[in-house]
Design a protein that fits this description.
about 200 residues; mainly beta; Immunoglobulin-like; four-stranded antiparallel sheet; 18 strands; about 5% helix; disordered C terminus
């Protein structure tokens, strides 16, 4: 008897089940070296989001761009070898976030000599939180209101001199990153102060 060895069905190891995803994600897992893995949304199996070959260490990863509306969606994967396919994996549920608020100010490389000022865009009806880029738990401006699609704000405490990046989010959204901006060391000028006192 001739028989055909159909590839085993691969598993999605990352992202985790019900993980929140933003505008991009990398789908990854393990498979059989040399085979190809394909990824699609479970409700659109004929539209591949990407495919990648399984590497020598038996891992595969597929970066995807996400253009779907926020909410619950499911991914699935299949393995392919020489035209034979494993069949699709079970649906792997993920939670898509709404688009992140953006920064329109500061522009990249902007210097602040004094109070830092942020401007950006966001969805109406939800406040914008701004945090340090390296630690989302350290908020530097909270619950900034959005009016006509725009928000503004300044840090509630002065930022230390030097280079900074910030990021912003609203409830149920991904994080949006600011460009790098600089906070200058402000030095008191005794001459200027003396002139002002005259």
């Amino acid at each position: 008897h001739e028989f055909t060895a159909v590839p085993a069905i691969p598993l999605i190891e990352s992202p985790a089940l019900q993980q929140h995803l933003g505008a991009t994600a990398t789908i990854s897992g393990h498979g059989y070296v040399g085979d190809w893995v394909e990824v699609a949304w479970s409700d659109a199996p004929d539209t591949l989001l990407g495919r990648a070959q399984v590497q020598a260490n038996r891992t595969w990863s597929i970066p995807i761009a996400i253009t779907r509306a926020a909410g619950t969606h499911s991914l699935m994967v299949q393995q392919e070898c020489e035209g034979y396919r494993s069949g699709w994996s079970a649906a792997h549920e993920v939670l898509l976030l709404s688009p992140a608020p953006t920064f329109t100010s500061p522009e990249a490389g902007h210097w602040f000599a004094g109070q830092v000022f942020f401007e950006g865009t966001g969805a109406a009806g939800q406040g914008v939180d701004v945090s340090y880029w390296f630690d989302a738990r350290q908020l530097i401006a909270q619950d900034r209101p959005v009016a006509d699609g725009a928000w503004t704000g300044s840090p509630e405490a002065p930022l230390a001199p030097g280079s900074h990046w910030a990021k912003a989010r609203q409830s149920g959204t991904d994080w949006g990153d600011s460009p790098r901006f600089e906070v200058a060391q402000v030095e008191e000028n005794p001459t200027a102060r003396a002139v002002l006192n005259h």
